[in-house]
Design goal:
Number of strands: 11
Distance between the termini: 38 Å
CATH topology of one domain: Peroxisomal Thiolase, Chain A, domain 1
Order of helices and strands: EHEHHEHEEEHHHHHHEHEHEHHHHEE
Oligomer: single chain
Number of helices: 16
Shape: globular
Strand content: 15-25%
Radius of gyration: 20 Å
Length: 431
């Protein structure tokens, strides 16, 4: 694929505040049924402002991300319509949508705006109702999003005029990374199956400690309730059926509703904006981006290779410098494949790290300490910023019982979404 030359930012930009809602099934709970897009986005935005120590008047511009506004939103211009919910009516803004990678591109949008010198302080937030859909001609009512309706929307991911779509069901598309990894690393079917199951177990262990996660029961608890003494016997059983050649139901995203936000400012203006806040700012060192539409063989792999090459080149960070890793794993194999491409896990050995539990929050190579898409939940656009929220909290040492063993100083996050774009960035705590 074509390689892009990425240049360093014109000025340093740092993260000073983050906010996130719980990920939830809003229409299933009387206390949350009827929540609007403005309320969810506003909650995350105001939490980020509180965390940063700023107020709406301090923020020059904001970005609004939503993966599927055509299906999920009641608005043509959602960025404008919800501004009152977080005190920014009249402020300039823009809406963007990059499918499930929206929340990762959200940080690049904000950083670019500040690094250019045009703005000094920017809010970037994302919101999604991944489990519900707006009822037409009603101001706030929503109903459950059926799988039939959701699958109809996946047709929007492909150019149906000039590009052939993948003539296969979703489960076969999801199997691509597992098949590629098994073949190139020389694993047996059984080893690949165990690796996928352990990824699910580790994700759930991480999420069990996170009060914002949508699913907090460990697989050990679930297996015991089903009458299994050994959790792996449960994971290999019909209780956790295969959805294709490799992927099992435990490795599929949990579609849900939620929002998250981040505030960035020029690093040399941190003291002005953060006031008496005592947490350290976190600098965004660089971002790499790539895209391979779905006719490209192993498109996730190829685009990830390019995005990670870019971010290492522009930041001059080495794989051994990365202390914690996040990857959008709505296809659970994503966090194994991308961690090896990044050199965070050694080539051909990453599956062993996963099976040994070393990628859980209490291991030496933590990945997705919030539980990722299969346990924290997948509120499409919001997921990327939810990962950033967790990463920042870990880097500050604010995660309580699920705090990783070594306080992370440098982190990589890799986003992945719709047919298929990739965004990878590296952040580092400023001493």
């Amino acid at each position: 694929m074509n390689q892009t030359k990425v240049n360093k930012y014109s000025r340093s930009v740092s993260i000073i505040g983050v906010g996130c809602t719980p990920f939830m099934y809003t229409v299933d709970n009387p206390e949350t049924d009827g929540l609007t897009e403005g309320e969810l986005f506003g909650y995350a935005a105001l939490k980020a402002m509180e965390d940063a120590g700023v107020n709406p008047q301090d923020i020059d511009f904001y970005f609004h991300g939503e993966a599927s506004p055509l299906n999920q939103s009641n608005y043509l211009t959602p960025n404008v319509q919800i501004a009152n919910w977080f005190g920014m009516k009249g402020k300039a803004s823009i809406h963007h949508s990059e499918a499930c990678c929206t929340g990762y591109y959200a940080i690049e949008q904000a950083v670019n705006a500040v690094a250019s010198g045009k703005y000094n302080c920017v809010l970037s937030g994302c919101v999604e109702f991944g489990d519900s859909v707006a009822v037409p001609n009603h101001p706030y009512k929503r109903e459950k999003l059926s799988m039939e309706t959701f699958l109809q929307t996946t047709a929007w991911l492909y150019d149906r005029t000039y590009t052939r779509s993948l003539m296969a069901g979703q489960e076969l598309i999801y199997d691509d990374a597992a098949e590629w990894y098994k073949r190139t690393r020389g694993l047996t079917d059984e080893q690949m199956d165990d690796t996928i199951n352990h990824m699910s177990i580790n994700n759930r262990k991480n999420a069990s400690m996170d009060e914002l996660a949508i699913e907090r029961r460990t697989y050990e608890q679930i297996a015991k309730e089903a009458g299994f003494d050994d959790v792996m016997d449960y994971m290999r059983s019909p209780y956790n059926p295969k959805n294709g050649d490799f992927l099992r139901m435990s490795g599929i995203e949990l579609k849900c509703d939620g929002a998250a936000a981040v505030i960035v400012c020029a690093t040399d203006m941190v003291d002005k904006y953060m006031g008496n806040k005592n947490h350290k700012p976190i600098e965004v060192l660089g971002v790499g981006c790539a895209a391979c539409e779905a006719t490209t063989p192993h498109f996730e792999v190829r685009a990830t290779e390019e995005a990670i090459r870019q971010v290492y080149e522009v930041t001059e960070v080495k794989p051994e410098d990365i202390d914690i890793f996040f990857a959008n794993d709505f296809i659970i194999t994503s966090h194994l494949v991308s961690a090896e491409i990044a050199g965070y896990l050694p080539y051909g050995e990453g599956w062993k790290y996963i099976c040994d539990g070393r990628t859980a929050y209490d291991g030496d190579k933590p990945i997705n300490t919030n539980g990722g898409r299969t346990s924290f939940g997948h509120a499409h656009a919001a997921s990327g910023l939810a990962d950033l929220y967790e990463c920042v909290k870990q880097m500050r040492g604010e995660c309580g019982e699920r705090q990783v063993k070594k306080l992370p100083k440098t982190a990589m996050l890799r986003g992945y979404g719709g047919a298929q774009n990739i965004c990878s960035y590296i952040i580092r705590t400023i001493d």
